[in-house]
Write a structure and sequence with these properties.
Elements lengths: L2 H5 L4 E7 L7 E7 L7 H44 L5 H9 L9 E7 L5 E7 L3 H13 L9 H8 L3 E3 L4 H7 L3 H9 L4 E9 L2 E10 L7 H44 L7 E3 L5 E4 L2
Antiparallel strand pairs: 1-2, 3-4, 3-7, 5-6, 6-7, 8-9
Helix pairs in contact: 2-8, 3-8, 4-7
């Protein structure tokens, strides 16, 4: 018999399953220190109580799930508002990092691929001023190109997210560049992490790292939320790029118009050719 039952001098007892939709929530037991022959009616009565408990637990979990769903929708709505607040590329990425301290992460870092194809950490944010100083030091000192062995490089290369429910010290040592870097990571109390790619069209331009120091470890639900945030960040980045391209085209058109107007008064024949040899502008 169970040591716990022996300790309490239990002589007789019965135990029934507390049912759940997918698997049992647990068991409900009734025990006595006196020897007793429990009947089928006793079993049915305890089972009825267990069924009520199971229904109550299930209802509570449904309510919790519904509440979490509302919170996630609210978070994504706020994130979308923040991301749409500016068409400036740098401000867009800063807005992503500024979501640190919300339900999704204690610390957020944004990585981006530059024109040479190298991946760099460009911004990080932590709501705690003391820990943000550590994040800032990491960003300033270790924003150098990410090594190919770094998890971020694999996420960007493969375009696949990575969830690490429990971050062990061995993993921190593996990604740390040097002893100081490892000290900073330990000082942040890194516990659980997610890395998701930032898609822009058909390409992956970077990644976002989400880290929790406190609270529950990350789950697949959290991964889905992080991926949706990264997708919206990618759309914001794409909009910012399109805006810059449109602005550059507008300025070029204005410059051409100004040049054409100026050439109207030049007595010589003037041609403007591009690098491909195509005549782009000429005067009468």
């Amino acid at each position: 018999p169970s040591p716990l039952l022996v300790e309490h001098g239990v002589k007789s007892g019965l135990t029934v399953v507390i049912p759940g939709l997918e698997q049992p929530f647990g068991v409900l037991g009734a025990h006595t220190a006196e020897r007793r022959a429990f009947t089928s009616d006793d079993v049915n009565y305890v089972q009825a109580v267990a069924n009520v408990l199971g229904a109550a637990v299930q209802q509570h979990r449904f309510a919790e799930a519904e509440q979490r769903a509302r919170e996630r929708l609210s978070f994504l709505a706020e994130a979308s508002r923040v991301l749409a607040a500016s068409l400036d590329y740098e401000l867009t990425l800063q807005a992503v990092a500024d979501l640190a301290g919300t339900q999704i992460a204690d610390w957020i870092s944004v990585y981006l691929t530059d024109e040479q194809g190298e991946v760099r950490r460009i911004v990080g944010r932590h709501p705690d001023p003391a820990k943000h100083a550590l994040v800032q030091e990491i960003t300033d000192r270790y924003g150098l190109p990410v090594d190919e062995t770094h998890p971020v490089a694999a996420v960007i290369r493969d375009g696949e997210s990575r969830l690490t429910a429990e971050i062990e010290e061995e993993l921190l040592a593996a990604v740390a560049v040097d002893v100081r870097h490892l000290e900073l990571l330990k000082g942040l109390g890194v516990r659980s992490g997610i890395l998701v790619p930032i898609p822009v069209g058909s390409e992956v331009v970077g990644a976002i790292g989400f880290v929790r120091s406190d609270g529950p470890t990350y789950t697949q639900d959290d991964l889905g939320l992080a991926e949706e945030l990264a997708r919206r960040a990618g759309l914001a980045i794409e909009n910012a790029r399109l805006f810059r391209t449109a602005e550059a085209a507008r300025r070029e058109a204005e410059a051409r118009a100004e040049s054409a107007q100026t050439l109207e008064f030049v007595g010589d024949g003037v041609f403007l050719l591009d690098l491909g040899g195509t005549v782009r502008l000429w005067n009468p």
